[in-house]
């Protein structure tokens, strides 16, 4: 039997990736954190495509796509992102990347560059992909679609804790500002905006633990 294709979309810091990772392990399917791909391109741009005033030169970035090789590798059961064979899993979580990733993700050229490889990965089934436009654009025919949401206060708390656990310095107020700003850009952009697919199941996990959110998703998968 073909294994399912599952799309998980939603706001920043609703736990999409960590929840998807656990569900993938339980079901024996692949997990793809598509946000990491946009973060990887942003990291590349910050290293290689800066104007003199330190802003990102988008044209230079678009001309450099052939130099970008993004790959997930299994490192002791953990999928880590490599850019041109260098592990960038910590760099992509930095504040510098978080502050610039929505600008990069709203560019049509960037989205087109990533679209086909995301679709190819889902062709054979057996994948859970999390992002912002998976149920609406990347995999509109997914077998299951979920849309995760939570209050901004709760999401701020979670991202702040995540940064601390990664050893990245963080200020709670700035974390909140970044989440609000990213949600706004991600929801209002012209191409593939963050929005719930009409047939997605909405889960507000403000009051739910990670385990409870996972159980809720697994229950829907069984039905
Ligand atoms: O899930 P995340 O916070 O790591 O995602 C980082 C950014 O990438 C997010 O602000 C929006 C963008 N993104 C996107 O536009 N489309 C996706 N499928 C995944 C992420």
UniProtKB/TrEMBL annotation:
Q: Which residues bind ATP?
A: 10-18
Query: What family does the Swiss-Prot or TrEMBL record give for this protein?
Result: Belongs to the cytidylate kinase family. Type 1 subfamily.
Which keywords has UniProt assigned to this entry? ATP-binding, Cytoplasm, Kinase, Nucleotide-binding, Transferase
Q: Report a single Gene Ontology molecular function.
A: kinase activity
Chief location category: cytoplasm
Tell me what reaction this enzyme catalyses. Answer: dCMP + ATP = dCDP + ADP; CMP + ATP = CDP + ADP
Instruction: List the SUPFAM superfamilies hit by this protein, alphabetically.
Output: P-loop containing nucleoside triphosphate hydrolases
What Pfam families would the database entry show?
A: Cytidylate_kin (PF02224)
Q: Which InterPro entries match?
A: Cytidylate_kin, Cytidylate_kinase_dom, P-loop_NTPase
Q: Locate the Cytidylate kinase domain: which residues? A: 6-222
Protein's cellular compartments = Cytoplasm
Q: What PANTHER family is this protein classified in?
A: CYTIDYLATE KINASE, CYTIDYLATE KINASE/PANTOATE-BETA-ALANINE LIGASE
> What's the protein here called?
Cytidylate kinase
* UniProt xrefs under CDD domains: CMPK (cd02020)
Name the encoding gene, please: cmk
**This protein's record includes keyword tRNA-binding:** no
Is the Protein biosynthesis keyword given for this protein?
A: no
* Top-level taxon: Bacteria
According to the UniProt entry, what is the EC number of this protein? 2.7.4.25
